Amino acid sequence: MAKKRVKKTMPQLMKSDNAIIKDLRDQQWLYNPRVFAQVSGDFSTMHQRVLLGVLDHLQDRIIKSADAHKPGEQLWLPLFAEEEMNTNLEFEIDAKDLGVTPGHYPELVNALEDLLTLRMGYLRKIETKSGTKTEYTFANLFSRITMVTNESTGLRTGKIRIKMDKENVNDFLSMDKGYTDHVAKIGQMAKKQRTPRIYIYLSTFRESGRKEVDYPQFCEFLGIDDQSYLLTHDGAKPQDNPFHKYSKVKSLILEPSRLEMDQLSKDSKIDFSFTYEPLRKDGRLKGNPSHIEFTLVPGPLGIERAWRKQRHNQEQSLITSLTTKYTDLKPYEMVELLKEVQDEWFEDFKDYAYDGVERAVEKKQPDHVAEYIVTLLSTWIKDKQLEDERKRIEQEKQYNLFTEQELQPEPEPLEPGVKAELWQQLVNEHQGSIKPVLERTEYLGLYNGAFYIFPTADDLKTLDTSPDYEVFSEKCRVALGLSKIRPAIIRKLK
Prior knowledge:
Elements: H1 19-26, E1 29-33, H2 34-37, H3 45-57, H4 59-68, E2 89-94, H5 105-117, E3 121-128, E4 131-138, E5 144-149, E6 156-164, H6 166-172, E7 179-183, H7 186-189, H8 195-203, E8 210-214, H9 215-222, H10 226-232, H11 246-266, E9 272-279, E10 291-298, H12 300-325, H13 331-339, H14 346-364, H15 369-407, E11 415-416, H16 420-429, H17 435-440, E12 442-447, E13 450-454, H18 457-465, H19 467-480, E14 489-491
Parallel strand pairs: 13-14
Antiparallel strand pairs: 1-7, 2-6, 3-4, 5-6, 8-10, 9-10, 11-12, 12-13
């Protein structure tokens, strides 16, 4: 007996040709270790483009670690194994892949020089007498990073040559806290300096959709905390830091980035925006908060992407269930069938695949079960496609009828005797079988742009049954300059 399942309805948001679906397919996504996503530092937009370029170069390593990790395990494979530590990591990236044109090469060169000495930190757990706490550990990510010049011309080639210590790479891009994913080109799309950092940081909380963040640690993440300011400004005081007060952080960072992310999300450039609320858990009503509560607000791209992930997971569950129960059924056969299943009837397909197929197999007891199941599911899909096609044709008919009705002008009053000479001329020139009927039919005038006549009942019957009437009507339509959907002659029974 088939087990009754609770049907979960998924949102039917878009059809496969929807523009948002296209954005989703065109968009490149980066897998980003959570540790690297939360690296601290006061990075310019150019710094961030370079860091994202490095992340892009290391995607194969990150994906390999993610694929090797099993649910429930605490340990993750490092990006570089112990036996690889005897050499440095050296590679090149292209400035054009970062969205940097030759006119901005000087700015890029300055950013590369900064990255060698810029204060950068990654979160790690530290054991203290009072217990375990999480804090930033600071180190240099890059051993060397320069822009290559042409030896003969001295011009910059656009190639960026990078050298990194693999141990530092393993620390900064540790997979121990898992990973997130985000739009790859956020560094090129955003205009506000901190928007990419906040977007990537908040993407690590996408699953929960809400997170209370320690405010001092958040400032440290952005590199705007008092300590970072004092380390880079000799003789300064904490009050000199332009971001010493929360009100400045809100007006200069949080609000501008939120508004920019709102627009990017609305335009389906990124998958979410956010709202935020300062929390003061020590009873104070004013001053810097102890925490900020962030709430993620999914946009059209995020909603559609979540649906795609949900469908993918449910497809995998369905394939596993059927191929486990019917061992001759091949996973690739199910994958090919599922490609034909439209979003609008995916839930119905699942119900049939889980329950209807089982009942059919129990009743039929076929010799070749897998072949029989594939035939059942293929037939179900074809029937749905035919049903959709019938609906499409009917909707098209209804639309055309509606359009014709919309094009019909409002009825106009009778214009007695208007165009009488034109009518008489057309009757005189006509040589068809209905000419005697037309000659004795009374002409009333012009009504709603058409000839208005007053035939007897017998003459009306003659006109309705004579093919010659269609020929004459067409001549009248042309003479009056009417469209094909407009009648050229209107009859009123005498």
